[in-house]
Known about the structure:
Layout: H1 2-17, H2 34-37, E1 49-56, E2 66-76, E3 81-92, E4 95-109, E5 114-129, E6 148-163, E7 168-173
Amino acid sequence: MKMLRNTILLFCILLSVSVSAQQMPEYTQFPSLLFQINPAYTGTKGTVDARANYRKQWMGFSGAPVTQFVGAHSRLLKGRVGIGATMYKDQIGPLQMFDYGFSAAYHLRFPDVEFSAGIGIRFNKYTINSGEMTTHWEGDPAITPGITEFDKTKNAVAGLLLYNDRFHFGLGVMNVM
Length: 177
């Protein structure tokens, strides 16, 4: 028993050494667009599911975080295929991220459950406006005043989902590329 416990502890320590994290702006404790996190959710509703969210935090502070997003998904081809699209913008002070993406899922129906496998692609544009930044040191070499820089990226997402009206069990992988 002690050997098993030590093996599990060693595994957790080794896993934590290689793990890193990045907070994504639209993911909170109550995500509105689950198919952004796991594309297998695309088309799981019986109707067209369209949503829009606006979130402003830290009211009264300049440069406070503002997140806006819209998305919709639905089923096609007699319920076997789901398609969806999302778009969001997140701004925190001089930093801005604009993202849009598309997802598709294939649904298999069984007597008591449904299985779904989905894929998606995301396009991002990260922008930093150094004219809106305040630095501690005058002439900081890391920041060129008055310059707006941006970087564009694309990425893939994939997921699996087993569900019915009583439970959802899913696995989603983001930032595949």
